[in-house]
Amino acid sequence: MNTVRRNAPFLVLAALAAVFAGIVWFAMPHDREVKSLGILLFKLVPFVLATEAIARLDPVWAQRIRLQMVIPVCFLVYFLYFVPKIFFVAENHPELYYYVLTLTPFVILSLVLSFRIGGGAAHLVRRLSYAMILLMLSGLEDLAFLTVNEHTDPAWQTIPEVWTWASHMTVRLGHPASKYEAFAFITVHVVLALLVLFAPQRWFAPLARVFRRTPVQASTAG
Predict the structure, then answer these.
(1) Nearest to 100 by CA among 161, 145, 66
(2) 175-188: per-residue pLDDT in tens?
(3) CA dist 48 to 17, 83, 144, Å?
(4) How far, in whole angstroms, is CA 1 from its chain's centroid?
């Protein structure tokens, strides 16, 4: 009970941020232009509430409940909803794909840098970063592109039998992936990401020892 009371400001502010974000996203039009100052200020309310919630978060409590696992969830919201939507509405701008492709690792590194600056352990930084890059490379976004968007082209209204566009799969498989090969490819990467996130730390002990070796120690050992 004391823990809940101590963290009540964070919980209340986070809940309010979620409510207002829902209002902005679901109840207000998605206009490009800002129609009035009042609308602008209202749309900033979720951001302000979320900022205050994060500022009031107790780091010790957050570490105890392993709140860092929210970071990959936040990444997936970005990568499996916003990225496919961006690609869908900007299909005639192929250069945009490259920008987003480059932006996504930057987002991952920004997230884990913030976590590390906030006191996150080095081994958790590695877990989070490598898990998210595995999710990026998994093909989940390709599947999301097919499922979260409202396609009018019959060729895209069902999942294609061959994923000719998924070059990141092609270069690793040696041929364009069939639908079921793509599903298997995605599954393997997701399982690997979950193992990176949740496997016992002792499984990574040999790798951790390699990272801890300094260049001087490595050259001496050689």
Answers:
(1) 145
(2) 999 999 999 999 99
(3) 8, 24, 30
(4) 32
